[in-house]
Amino acid sequence: MSSDEIIFYDLPSRGTPKCWSLNPWKARLALNFKNVPYKTEWVEYPDVAPTFKSFDIPPNSPSLNPNAQYSIPAIKLPGNKYIMDSLAIAQELERLYPEPSLKFANNDYAPRMQTAVAGFWSSLQPIAVPRVPELILNPKSAEYFNTTRATRFGMPLTELAKSERAGEQAWKAAEQAMDLIVALLEENEGKYVQGGDEPSFADFILAGVFRFSEIVDKEGDLFGRVMGYHGALKEHYEACKPWLKRDD
Fold first, then answer.
1. Mind giving me the DSSP string for 124-135?
2. What are residue 212's phi and psi, to 5 degrees?
3. Which residue among 143, 203, 217, 239 has the highest number of C-beta atoms inside a 10 angstrom radius?
4. Residues in domain GST N-terminal (predicted)?
5. pLDDT digit string (tens) for 76-119?
6. 95, 70, 108, 89: which is closest to 31 by C-alpha?
7. Is the pTM of this model over 0.90?
8. What domains can be seen in the chain, in order of their start residue?
9. How confident is the model at residue 67 (pLDDT cuts 50, 70, 90)?
């Protein structure tokens, strides 16, 4: 393996592996947008920590990720430099490959979008998370995911999916978050968060969570409902599709 080869570490889906999770999508969208050549290596959930420890990647700060010391995505950059976390990866890609720009400079759109998307995702987790082992994961990762998320949510995922937390109260909270997202999208003229004809990292934060909701959708009950909430959401997702094409 060349020390200059870029390797992107992602979580596999069943069958032919494809990107599915919202956090890897954010970094992968940045790679695709910048047209940086890279290879994907797929890492099952139980193998993430031992694999990344073997690369001497420092663990996550508890303030960044209180749930896991090691998490996907990570990347190996030229010179055998390893970075974990989608934002850190995107910022380093921007430094190494400044054009086309992810537009981090002199604005707060990425953190504002991250806050809005975190509220959206937090609201819909009781609906979406139980579908991950059901629809996406290989058995090795599904067992790990079911165990760790049952601890996190205080009940088995099969029970969470049937609970009131996965009902209309989830959507009531999600709609408040979607209103914040729509307001961000409407601040500037154009297809994207910062306006104009090219996206920024703020756009990829949003596109990643929309793509994930599309993957775990069942007959339009999740992604379809989100896209139908406001025209600006669907318009934005359609505008980001060119960089969602490569998912491997």
1. HHHHHTTHHHHH
2. -60, -45
3. 203
4. 11-101
5. 999 999 999 999 999 999 999 999 999 999 999 999 999 999 99
6. 89
7. yes
8. 7-96 (3.40.30.10), 108-245 (1.20.1050.10)
9. confident
